[in-house]
Amino acid sequence: MLTIPCHLSFTSSLMERDQASLFFTAPHSKAGCSSSIATIANAIARHISHGILVIDGHQGLTSLTHQFLSCPQKGFYNLVYAKEIPDINPFIFKEPKGMSYDFLPFGHDYPFQQPLERQHIKNLLKALAKLYKYILFDGPPVFSSPEVVTMAAQFDGVALVLQAEKTRWEVAQAAVDRLQQGGANVFGAVLNQRKYYMPKWVYDLL
Question: How far apart are CA 54 and CA 65, in angstroms?
Fold first, then answer.
């Protein structure tokens, strides 16, 4: 059974852990993973002054990389595909555009034709964990590629982002089943873009 807290409750549950790497994904596109990550990262930053890393794990005009950077930069996938992990710091952008967290972009000019190796992902996350308390990964939708589940299983947990009034419960449950069958630890779910309806008499008081 999935628990579906608000962003604030989810953040509180996450911060009960001293350290965690979390893979954010959704059953379908446009569910709001990027906005949920930004909200949670900012909420964590109110309690700790540093130690938060957000990683962009998918491309597109709405991606965090496109929002933060004016031109393509090497990033996460360059590190994952490297035979040996180089110095990570040159790949990381410190609090881009005044954000309260550090940022690792998607990547650029990497051998994407090659399959991802689980051990490479584990090694990179282990290296990043030495630098950051909380690692939040903005991943692609669950059903977009078989590699999504493979990658998600290497993180401490998975956060499933559900779009209010759009994501059907059956689809959400199918996404959870697929993640768990692939060995991923589903930490919980976040209900995004929730609408709050007020009765007319409340509007009249505004």
Answer: 11
d(CA 179, CA 102): 27
Residue 3 binned pLDDT confidence (cut-offs 50, 70, 90): very low
Residue 12 phi, psi (nearest 5): -60, -45
Helix axes 33-45, 7-15, angle to 10 degrees: 60
E strand segments, the chain: 20-25, 52-56, 102-104, 134-138, 157-163, 186-192
Nearest to 133 by CA among 11, 12, 15: 15
Identify whether the C-beta of residue 108 lies closer than 8 Å to the C-beta of residue 78.
yes
Cα 7 to Cα 153: distance, rounded to the nearest angstrom: 22
Does the pLDDT at position 196 exceed 60?
no
C-alpha 36/C-alpha 64 separation (Å) is: 12
Closest CA to 150 of 57, 63, 85: 57
pLDDT at 72 over 90: no
Return the amino acid letter for 171.
V
CA trace torsion 85, 18, 5, 30 (10° rounding): -10
Nearest to 63 by CA among 26, 85, 30, 20: 30
